[in-house]
Amino acid sequence: MSFELLAGEVHALVGENGAGKSTLIRIITGAETPDSGGLMLSGESYRRMDPSTARALGIAAIYQQPSLFPDLTVAENVALALEAPGSWRPIDWTARRRRAAELLDRVGAAIDPGRLGASLTMPEQQLVEIAKAIGANAKVLIMDEPTAALADREVDRLMGVIERLCESGVGIIYVSHRLDEVFRIAARVTVLRDGETVKTVSTGDISRAELIRMMVGRELTAVFPPRDAGSDTADHGTALDVRRLSNRSTGVRDISFSVRRGEIFGIAGLVGSGRTQLAETLFGLTPPDDGEIAIDERIAHVQSPADAINAGMAYLPEDRRRHGIIMDMSVAANTSLASLGRVSRFGLLDRRAERRTAQGYVDRFRIKAPSIRAEVSTLSGGNQQKVALARWLATEPSVLILDEPTQGVDVGAKGEIHSLMRQLVSRGIAIVMISSELPEILGMCDRIAVMRAGTITAVLSRSEATQSRLLALALGAIDVPSAGE
């Protein structure tokens, strides 16, 4: 593998999960030692790198999964990354907060430095990580899926920060599965496949289709697979009916909508609009104060996740590593966690039934794993997401809520997950999909609700929806573009 980064350049690194991107990042940051070859930085050669040397030389990395300490404040988390150890001077708390506030302002994040890490949403955690890296005055900045949890407005702010960093001479390695961003921000792109460099090209000299073909080694035409002929959901009945739902503690207010069997119902909106809070209220993680939820035309009294599961609802959360899977448990154990009653006899776990169920989903979803006994931590991000999805499908739900189902997975895995969603709705399951990617919302959903300030401002059909119209509604614009614009 060979890779070159120029000062002041954004050089994108792309490839399917397992292509070698993370290994290359670990070698550059000193977390992994190469068997052969070497590194050169500012004209100096290094046979190997270690983390402390990398930091001293100005190499910093922002990873897809934030690594903030949950019980420390934002200011303390930033200070840990920037302040030199070994000082016996009293801590200047005012200076800490001021420094953190300045860095957060540079990335356009309106976050109180006194907030605890545990109180931050995923997008807020990502912005704090970016602020930490900027504060370290990096010469080489590695960004691994920095926008995975950001909405369009936050992405625009980040792109502005990246442009300013490049103007100051910082070289940026940009790892992303969002190819629109690659073409928007990167001067060059290097494609990795099976641990090797396929090619490095200027982004102006290659099309999106050609880039995908180089990444996966095959044609990929079904990122958003079409609906099956005759799959109109009009006569399939209502799977989920939400009436005047409110939750004062989370800001969800007066929500009403319905989802038919065999329908994908999208929920769009900016970060902070209340999308995830609505999902958590529906699933009983934060029970509603007012309103009704009906599943399969029966009133469901959802005061806990157990109530939701028993009523026929399943929820795949946004942060799969913290809430979707248990990393050090096996594929088989993760698959059965939400449906233990189906693989138990007389209160005892039937391991054979558990393995049979897990193997069925591994085969059906084409999950790439050494075996069903392998720990989920050994799987790629896309396959981890499939295991999380299998866990909830094992409960045989009528309604499946998916919060950012393809966040941080490569283009090949994204197409497979979209195909799985099409298969599920063809069997009559109703899907509520939350996504920050407007092309995904438009490509997959039959109808789309737009949220703003904790409530739904509009519900549009597929034919009525456009990116500009969804964004205008999310921003609260008075003049909303028509579907023809």
Mean pLDDT: 85
According to DSSP, the number of beta strands is 20
CATH superfamily of the largest domain: P-loop containing nucleotide triphosphate hydrolases
User: What percent of the residues sit in helical stretches (DSSP H or I)?
Assistant: 25-40%
Q: Quick one: overall form? A: globular
Low-confidence stretches: none
Could you name the key traits of this structure?
single chain, 485 residues, alpha/beta, Rossmann fold, 2 domains, 6-stranded mixed sheet, 17 helices
Q: What's the short story on this structure?
A:
The protein is an alpha/beta fold and 485 residues long.
Structural description of this entry:
A hairpin with a 2-residue loop joins strand 12 and strand 13. Strands 4-5-6-1-7-8 form a six-stranded mixed beta sheet, sandwiched between helices. The protein has a six-stranded mixed beta sheet with strand order 14-17-18-11-19-20, with helices on both faces. The chain has a four-stranded antiparallel beta sheet with strand order 10-9-12-13. With 485 residues, it is α/β, with parallel strands linked by helices. It is built from 17 helices and 20 strands. Helix 3 packs across helix 4 and helix 3 packs parallel to helix 5. It is globular, with a radius of gyration of 23 Å. It folds into two domains: 207 residues, P-loop containing nucleotide triphosphate hydrolases (Rossmann fold); 238 residues, 3-Layer(aba) Sandwich (Rossmann fold), CATH 3.40.50.300.
